[in-house]
Amino acid sequence: MTGVDYWNDRARKFGKRAVVDLNYGQSQVDSVTEFYSSKLLPVFSACLHGDEKVVLDFGCGWGRFSHNLAVLTGGKVVGVDPVSELLKFARETESVQFRLLRDDSIPLPDESVDIVWVCLVLGGIDDTSLHKVAAELTRVLKKDGLLFLVENITQISDGSHWYYRSFDFYRQLLPESCLQFKTSFSDNGEVIAVMAGRKV
Known about the structure:
Elements: H1 3-14, H2 29-47, E1 54-58, H3 66-73, E2 76-81, H4 84-87, E3 96-100, E4 113-119, H5 127-140, E5 141-152, H6 167-173, E6 180-187, E7 190-198
Parallel strand pairs: 1-2, 1-4, 2-3, 4-5
Antiparallel strand pairs: 5-7, 6-7
């Protein structure tokens, strides 16, 4: 089963809950999202210059952060995800649109977004696709654009569909974004790192 097939199957079984740790129950999805928002959005806001108008929410799932990103920036958010079953739950507005990602190619022009937001997505991508995805993220981000990256950096063995990588790994994967470690927090005993940098 490919990664996309796995996540589509997971979304069919668990709906919106598919994007969180399955140790959480269905009734906890909103509270988990609120917890992540409380940890991430203040750090994200502090990274803004104030003139950003287009945000790419890469691996947006059902858009659990997309609408807050639009509010915080006052701009437009484009959410992309390869998992069509998750996009079925996404809610579009005038400022938030969603698109299906195909073949790891982001359906946006070069240097067309001011911010790339990636939250717990790269850990679900295998090494075969990861470097292409990294190149795509760099391609669509404007110079001096913000990359805001959140990943699980717990030092444990990889799962069947999740890869635990270090901060140094992500910094080397995305060298043009000059990632800096901002903070970390715990989710069910695992370490969630918040990283950010601007493209040179």
